[in-house]
Automatic annotation (TrEMBL):
InterPro entries: BPD_transp_1_N, MetI-like, MetI-like_sf, Opp2B
GO molecular function, one term: nickel cation transmembrane transporter activity
Record-given protein name: Binding-protein-dependent transport systems inner membrane component
Entry keyword annotation includes Ion transport: yes
Alphabetical keyword list: Cell membrane, Ion transport, Membrane, Nickel, Transmembrane, Transmembrane helix, Transport
């Protein structure tokens, strides 16, 4: 298994290299001069002089060619330096550290909501195939997939914050501030997991060893939760691992809707301000999360089902 992990790490590094090249190139090909944009904002909207623009570009290495800037940036990244913000001159790692926990908290809470809703719903839907519970769960899953999360967020705010007044509309710091964003973020993922778990459960329930377990007189609860659910979770683990990375991306919109601090708000502000070091650092961090999550998902396979051999059978 260690050989497989090493191979995955090497391939992950290649992915990160490709992401860094693409991100670095796109940021510099976007319209607008970051020096002019940032200096104008610092001067309260007044146009900066050409001399000030040149000083800014020289100080931040923007006069170098794009390949030279990229090599310098990669060299710094390999030393743990993601650069500094053009605006505040604060290290990008410091900005990410200051905004990381609110986003992680939201992503974990959204994942928890999704699992708490999806696992029992998917199991009940599969066990009662063709019944009212099955149809009801499928309708709810379809609604969850169909609704844009920003629209759902505003709807939840209208009902629970404006009309009922039981939860806050925006902010950060208490459990009440987390409820609506977590439900909004987790609803779409819950719908995906519910449909996938239902299909996986139905497939496993038709296996011969399940019929054998039932013929031996085992209680239905043991057959469903001990024998069926464990084997049906394998494809679910994949989607949960991948969706956790997407939850971080989805947090960008949710943080804007509920006016929460976090990486999403930091990224949006950096994009509009042409704050390239912050944008590049955040995209790289998200890419690292995807690579690490995929690796952890593959390793988890082995513990859920020891019959699975990582790396095509060789360890």
């Amino acid at each position: 298994m260690w050989k497989y992990i090493v191979r995955r790490i090497i391939s992950g590094l290649a992915v990160l290299l490709g992401v860094s090249v693409l991100t670095f190139s796109l940021t510099f090909f976007t319209p607008g001069d970051p020096a002019r944009t940032i200096l104008r904002k610092q001067m309260g909207g007044r146009s900066p002089s050409q001399a000030a623009i040149e000083r800014f570009r020289e100080a931040n290495g923007l006069n170098d060619s794009i390949p030279v800037q990229y090599v310098n940036w990669v060299t710094d990244v390999m030393q743990g330096d993601l650069g500094a913000s053009y605006h505040s001159e604060t290290a990008v790692t410091t900005l990410i550290g200051q905004n990381l926990m609110p986003t992680v908290e939201l992503a974990v809470a959204g994942l928890a909501v999704a699992l708490v809703v999806a696992i029992p719903t998917g199991v009940i839907s599969a066990v009662h195939k063709g019944g009212r519970l099955d149809y009801g769960s499928q309708v709810l899953a379809l609604l969850g997939l169909s609704m844009p999360n920003f629209w759902l967020g505003y709807l939840l705010m209208l009902v629970f914050a404006v009309q009922l007044g039981v939860l806050p509309t925006h902010g950060f710091g208490t459990f009440g501030h987390l409820v609506l964003p977590a439900v909004t973020l987790g609803t779409g993922m819950a719908a995906v997991i519910t449909r996938l778990l239902r299909s996986s459960m139905l497939e496993v329930l038709d296996e011969e060893y399940i019929q054998t377990a039932r013929s031996k007189g085992l209680k239905e609860r043991i057959v469903v939760y001990k024998h069926t659910l464990r084997n049906a979770l394998i494809p679910v683990i994949t989607i949960v691992g991948l969706q956790f990375g997407y939850l971080l991306n989805g947090a960008v919109i949710i943080e804007m809707v509920f006016q929460r601090p976090g990486l999403g708000s930091l990224l949006i502000d950096a994009i509009f301000a042409r704050n390239y070091p912050v944008v590049q650092g955040l995209v790289l961090i998200v890419a690292v999360v995807f690579v690490v999550t995929n690796l952890l998902v593959d390793i988890t396979y082995r513990y859920v089902d020891p019959r699975i051999s990582l790396g095509g059978g060789g360890e």
